[in-house]
Amino acid sequence: MYKICVIEGDGIGKEVVPATLEVLKATGLDFEFVHGEAGDEVFKRRGIALPEETVEIAKECDAVLFGAAGETAADVIVKLRKILDTYANVRPVKSYRGIKCLKDNIDYVIVRENTEGLYKGIEAEVAEGVYTATRVITEKACRRIFKFAFDLARRRKREGKRGKVTCAHKANVLKLTDGVFKRIFYEVAEEYPDIEAEDYYIDAMNMYIITKPETFDVVVTSNLFGDILSDGAAGTVGGLGMAPSANIGDRYGLFEPVHGSAPDIAGKGIANPTATILTGVLMLRYLGEDEVANRVEKALEEVLEKGLTTPDLGGSLTTFEMAQEVVKRLKEE
Ligand code: NAI
Ligand code: MG
């Protein structure tokens, strides 16, 4: 039995998460879903966006499934990633048939360092009208994120994927911080002679995910670069409604679609559940349920290919109807 902490959050989180729970239930696995609250609405009601009891639930479960927060996102999801020390932010970029993508053979994973870099939150006013943000790079965090990336490439290679890690940095300008980042990348690479290693400057990388995305397998980068690169990458495979993510640490796994609460479409029942269902697939793999994960992904692939989708992908189904199409296929097997 798996105990899952479910945090729907705000806006479309309240739609895409329940839709995904239906899919998870249809797998036949034994789940206990423990709901925790967080987000704007809780903040309005209780004056706190991430209540302590929600953090406690998250810590005692096997995994956390999170929808989206609104304006309190920094105090909810960014904080939760920190509390759970989930140092690797994993964002698969994959083209599915039936979805308008830049190319039809895109299949790589962006691994973003999740704990430091420019998002450490160290900002200051150092003189009248002068402000700074401190970019923190530690050898320890570099080593663990690179090991994570190479281990992932190795697992993917066993599944027939390329077996390559690409490091994106800006060592020519950020000579010390990214100099260290690049040096440790190649040090760790030596421990993985079976995996190819290459590196690019982040600006060029930003072009390559558009001009030659099919050549990548695992892409590893620092916090801010990864944040920007991964939203752009999502745009090459159908947009935010298609982009799942996992936050992985040594003790906890926190799973969330990349998108936010989407107030412009919230409450209309038209949010695309794909990103969250694919997030559920990542969670299943984390729990060691690869075979079940493959079944869910296959069912979803069929639904996408048939155009049984929400309006953002050109279809006319609601969030729940689309999820129901996946459920139907899982039950038919
Ligand atoms: P957003 O991701 O919520 O929406 C951007 C655009 O993509 C909107 O037009 C929206 O309708 C569309 N979209 C997003 N997900 C979709 C889906 N599943 N199906 C169909 N269309 C989808 O980002 P935005 O508008 O910048 O932020 C809205 C709120 O969400 C803000 O309050 C922001 O702070 C919060 N946010 C929270 C995040 C989180 O909890 N992880 C991440 C990003 C934003
Ligand atoms: Mg972002």
Automatic annotation (TrEMBL):
Residue ranges of domain Isopropylmalate dehydrogenase-like in the record: 3-326
Alphabetized Pfam families for the sequence: Iso_dh
| Keyword terms, alphabetized | Magnesium, Metal-binding, NAD, Oxidoreductase
Stored PANTHER family? DECARBOXYLATING DEHYDROGENASES-ISOCITRATE, ISOPROPYLMALATE, TARTRATE (PTHR11835), ISOCITRATE DEHYDROGENASE [NAD] SUBUNIT ALPHA, MITOCHONDRIAL (PTHR11835:SF34)
Q: Which family does it belong to?
A: Belongs to the isocitrate and isopropylmalate dehydrogenases family.
Some GO term, biological process aspect, for this entry: which one? tricarboxylic acid cycle
Q: Which EC numbers characterise this protein's activity in its record?
A: 1.1.1.85
Q: Which NCBIfam families match?
A: LEU3_arch (TIGR02088)
Cofactor(s) recorded for this entry are: Mg(2+)
Question: Which GO molecular function annotations are given, in alphabetical order?
Answer: 3-isopropylmalate dehydrogenase activity; isocitrate dehydrogenase (NAD+) activity; magnesium ion binding; NAD binding
Report the InterPro entries cross-referenced here.
IsoCit/isopropylmalate_DH_CS (IPR019818), IsoPropMal-DH-like_dom (IPR024084), LEU3_arc (IPR011828)
Gene3D superfamilies reported in the protein's UniProt record? Isopropylmalate Dehydrogenase
Q: What is this protein called?
A: 3-isopropylmalate dehydrogenase
List membrane-spanning regions: none
